[in-house]
């Protein structure tokens, strides 16, 4: 068997085994050394290939797709700095627990560390951010090696999606010539041995562990369930059932999937971020215990709340081992399937009866905060917070929302209230960076369902390269672009008091016309001046194919004053209720 046939059969068996294990999509960035992988993926009849020329964008595009489709997505790039440009997306995937298969092409051993072009050390280059790294053997058509390559593909796919999902990195050393020969007979039918993934069972607590859990709550009267960022719909239903049976409130992060949908949400406290901004209010809602599901919530006031109540019993429920407790409190980690855990609690005999007054207090505070959040006069100018409330009025049922970091996610936390619409809300909260947000939203929209992205001007600028893949594949994306000409979140931080350096180092105004970038990438641009025009622009965008960008111009200083005024009004009303 000559080199070309060995190369072709080796790579074809690898790609085919990934498909058999469940892979449907691969994101490819152009390059020469990766030719065998790129061409074979493109040739496979059942794998969809996406071409994204910017590797940083490609990684975030694959991440958004994997997050939305809830399955691993593969990435293919050439050797050298191409692989290094994946790094930000890989770090985000690691911390947000998203399954990615990173397949990097490399020079063969004889061309490494000798000054050859596009040759860097790619061995385990992502370090602890990958769950498994493996240097693949050089292509060989021997039957034993074809079984090896299939076994490696099956292991890679399963590992990326097993336990806490994450990144698997396989490095492929390829010698020239690099062009496969797809005229070879029985290319997909020859080696049919398949390595199926592991069977993974669901874990629950033993009876003695449940007894201990209930004993820790035996003297408690006032508890809260907290749900941070997570995407499991079955957990939504389980948490709501538990909340109803136990009569305790649920503090629901905007990325928890608990604020929307056709569920009974009477105990959901979606305005907890606004409620807990006041230290005086926090003193009046001291809990006896906290049970948290999902990652740590976005809300900084909630972090203060947890730290100020470090002596109360706190549980963090994790499906797999992991440490997501940044408050540093003494915490009971419950490592079990979260859905199964909720149903075990529902079926168990809780020896305690929790205070109904506690739940009613939270519900009344939520009602007051919500009323003030929605309050808006007819002449209220365009503001960043109400951009969210008006979006919630217009967005269609069964929609996906992707939220940028910095101010957008915080405004969504405050202004995205409960809704009967079924919305799926995502964000890149693994490391909270502003890079790659647009690409992630495009990845989430890649299979044809329109996504609405709420993003700030700096984040939009940071990932403009990502818009090209949207243009190439006519991906349906509506972008609500909040342009306050700089880094709006810094205006809320202590840095804003140091005016000498603030604008240059933190405000960072760009003073560029973003409309021209939208036009360059074939998008439909609108710049509404009133709330009515904004809602009309949203409706029009949902009927327009491809990319639509709605730019909302705001003023950073006015935005800070407006937010502070709103929060002061809420604090005054809440304290009046608590002290009355």
Automatic annotation (TrEMBL):
Homodimer. Catalyzes the thiamine diphosphate-dependent decarboxylation of 2-oxoglutarate and the subsequent addition of the resulting succinic semialdehyde-thiamine pyrophosphate anion to isochorismate to yield 2-succinyl-5-enolpyruvyl-6-hydroxy-3-cyclohexene-1-carboxylate (SEPHCHC). Residues 220-403 form the Menaquinone biosynthesis protein MenD middle domain. Residues 14-125 form the Thiamine pyrophosphate enzyme N-terminal TPP-binding domain. GO terms for biological process: menaquinone biosynthetic process. Residues 439-552 form the Thiamine pyrophosphate enzyme TPP-binding domain. Gene3D superfamilies: 3.40.50.970, TPP-binding domain. GO terms for molecular function: 2-succinyl-5-enolpyruvyl-6-hydroxy-3-cyclohexene-1-carboxylic-acid synthase activity; magnesium ion binding; manganese ion binding; thiamine pyrophosphate binding. Belongs to the TPP enzyme family. MenD subfamily. InterPro entries: DHS-like_NAD/FAD-binding_dom, MenaQ_synth_MenD, MenD_middle, THDP-binding, Thiamin_PyroP_enz_TPP-bd_dom, TPP_enzyme_TPP-bd. Its cofactor is thiamine diphosphate; Mg(2+); Mn(2+). Keywords: Magnesium, Manganese, Menaquinone biosynthesis, Metal-binding, Thiamine pyrophosphate, Transferase. Its EC number is 2.2.1.9. Binds 1 thiamine pyrophosphate per subunit. The lineage of its organism: Bacteria, Bacillati, Bacillota, Bacilli, Bacillales. It comes from Terrihalobacillus insolitus. Pathway: Quinol/quinone metabolism; menaquinone biosynthesis; Quinol/quinone metabolism; 1,4-dihydroxy-2-naphthoate biosynthesis; 1,4-dihydroxy-2-naphthoate from chorismate: step 2/7. It catalyses: isochorismate + 2-oxoglutarate + H(+) = 5-enolpyruvoyl-6-hydroxy-2-succinyl-cyclohex-3-ene-1-carboxylate + CO2. This is 2-succinyl-5-enolpyruvyl-6-hydroxy-3-cyclohexene-1-carboxylate synthase.
